[in-house]
Amino acid sequence: MLAIAAAVVFFIAFIINATETSTEVIFGTTSLMLVGFTLVALHLAGVGAGWQARGRSRRR
Hints:
The chain crosses the membrane at residues 28-51. The protein is an all-alpha fold and 60 residues long.
């Protein structure tokens, strides 16, 4: 899930960069790329992997 969010953030950063849109500093391409890299790093570290609802999976 985090990798998909990172891909979306990278795509938005690419569109802003490609169209040379003037944006606020917080929504600049560098800021969005850093957020995307953070999401990818969290994904690779295993955060968010294997989230399951407790109590549903029972072994028999």
